[in-house]
Amino acid sequence: MEYSAIKRWLIGRPLKSEEAGEHKLNKLKALAILSSDALSSVAYGTEQILIVLMTVSAAALWYSIPISIGVLVLLTALILSYRQVIFSYPKGGGAYMVAKSNLGINFGLIAGSSLLIDYILTVAVSVSAGTDAITSAFPYLHQHTVLISVIMVILVTVLNLRGLTESAGFLAYPVYLFVFALFMLIVTGIYHIVTGTIPHTTITGIGMHVSGISLFLLLKAFSSGCSALTGVEAISNAVPNFKKPEDKNAANTLAMMGALLGILFTGVSFLAYWYGIAPKEAETVVSQIAAETFGRNWAYYFVQGTTALILVLAANTGFSAFPMLAYNLAQDRFMPNMFMVRGDRLGYSNGIITLSLLSIVVIFIFEGTTELLIPLYAVGVFLPFTLAQVGMMIKWAKEKPTGWVPKFIVNTIGALITFTVLAIFFITKFSQVWYSLLFLPICVYICLQIRLHYKALGEQLKIDVTKEFNHEVTGNVVIVPISGISRSVEKTLVYAKSITKNVIAVYIAFKDEDIAMMEEKWEKWNTGVRLITIKSRYRSIINPILKLIDTVNQKTMNDGGMVTVLIPDFITKKLWHRALHNQTALLLRAHLLQNKNVIVSTVPFRLKK
């Protein structure tokens, strides 16, 4: 089976650019695909609080109630804040756009890099947690933890490469089954409490003093419980993926997610307190609550099954948000151009594949151990949370729109809380999170170097189209594929006209406005070379050029001539710079040499910096 046939079987037929509007998300599908990470954290958020409190004694478990209330306050502040982010920055980018616009490029890059790392860890943590659930049920698979995790990443990758609507349609079922299972658990548990079927079994009542408790420990428990808020920012990063009106639909979806997350987290925390449940190494808190509520029957296994499933599929939040964030960074020249290119199914497939590969690397490094990944994961969340809140504070203070004071207060409260949580993570878990102090500066430095390269490239390829283009030459039929007007193209056209007067420049674009702009510039440049513009409906550069070459080649051969294809190509000074550019010239040359009876040559333009 050929590569193209395998590719089509895996991800489906290519979609036209005009179909992009048909493949955006409505609120229900968006809730499933962008909220799976946040909703899945209900499965371990309460448990993280109880684990810290148990270091004092079981009597301290009642503090989980006020701590849970504190988490809900932070959740409310974050939801209100990110609703404002969505309306203020409807093109997506979330914390990156907020920080870049209000705090400067460096803080924007810190937020963006932190989120990129967070989404990589989202995938790694989610599949590792799902693998733990599988190996707990089937212990003999434990030795294959890494392999199972990698297979899961590959499956989710293929699902996302098929497009947003297909992955959302598939993911909606397990996400909503999990929500239904948790609602069923909470409602049944409350019914048992109201009817007196299950008595109040906690050791101490709310408000009782417990010896050994301290403010530091309570703050540590609060920061651990805030792991239930991971994924809240994902919707603000992916606003362009929504159906019109994008910002309104995204804001409504965020509110729905916040309401569901708040209800489920509150319900689980309350039942854990009422039942007097303490964390166990061999059994999760949700499992204990389900066993107390239903017994070990079908309902119990339904809750456990949907919980395990959503823990794995929570990885999809990263696959939805990472490509959009990478797109925004690439637009600002901080990441390679390839992250702005849509794939066959209209998704940003280069971002999806990159995320998949990096997640697999992280899984191998940490050997799929969830406990080692979660602290880093949390830091990657709360750093951009804090920067986004501070950025919005500065925005309101500078612009002072109508009703800005309540918004400023909300962001101020959110900034104080998120910064406190971030500080607690660094103080209490420094040995586990110090990696972030190494990774973030490296990521920021790489982004800045990429932008410097693109800036230098633009300076070297820039050309004055008002100057006369005058090169009278004769020769064979020459086709010159171009991507724009530059010194590299000028050098190639000069050489082409030295071969023949019959020179054809070919420009492929995906939008009508790009074609109109190029034709206007070309006419102004006045090269004396005929320009053919082609709109590629399937976003392919190479196929339209190959079809044109076939047409010209057939006519030329009938007249006893030959076709020469001259490919402009700039050669970067540094080898790593090459990876920052689309390899269209290389791919076209390979296709022509392999399949076409034409002369193929490259006209190099060497960059000096």
Explained architecture:
- The protein has helices at residues 3-11, 27-40, 42-53, 64-88, 94-103, 105-137, 145-161, 164-195, 215-225, 234-237, 246-275, 285-294, 298-313, 315-331, 349-366, 370-399, 404-428, 430-461, 487-499, 512-525, 542-558, 584-595, and strands at residues 477-482, 503-509, 530-535, 563-571, 599-606.
- The chain is elongated.
- Helix content is 66%, strand content 6%.
- It has a five-stranded parallel β-sheet, with helices on both faces.
- By secondary structure, it is mainly alpha-helical.
- The protein is built from 22 helices and five strands.
How many runs of DSSP E, i.e. beta strands?
Answer: 5
Residues in β-strands, percent: 5-15%
SSE run: HHHHHHHHHHHHHHHHHHEHEHEHEHE
The overall pLDDT, averaged over residues, is 82
Main sheet overview:
5 strands, parallel
Helix proportion range: 55-70%
Low-confidence stretches: none
From the alpha-carbon coordinates, what is the Rg to the nearest angstrom?
28 Å
User: In whole angstroms, how far apart are the ends?
Assistant: 44 Å
Q: Classify the secondary structure makeup into a structural class.
A: mainly alpha
For the biggest β-sheet, the strand order reads: 3-2-1-4-5
Key features of this structure:
609 residues; mainly alpha; elongated
Task: Write the topology of this structure.
Elements: H1 3-11, H2 27-40, H3 42-53, H4 64-88, H5 94-103, H6 105-137, H7 145-161, H8 164-195, H9 215-225, H10 234-237, H11 246-275, H12 285-294, H13 298-313, H14 315-331, H15 349-366, H16 370-399, H17 404-428, H18 430-461, E1 477-482, H19 487-499, E2 503-509, H20 512-525, E3 530-535, H21 542-558, E4 563-571, H22 584-595, E5 599-606
Parallel strand pairs: 1-2, 1-4, 2-3, 4-5
Helix pairs in contact: 2-8, 2-11, 2-13, 2-14, 3-9, 4-9, 4-11, 4-16, 4-17, 5-6, 5-16, 6-7, 6-13, 6-14, 6-15, 6-16, 6-18, 7-14, 7-15, 8-11, 8-12, 8-13, 9-17, 11-12, 12-13, 14-15, 16-17, 16-18, 17-18
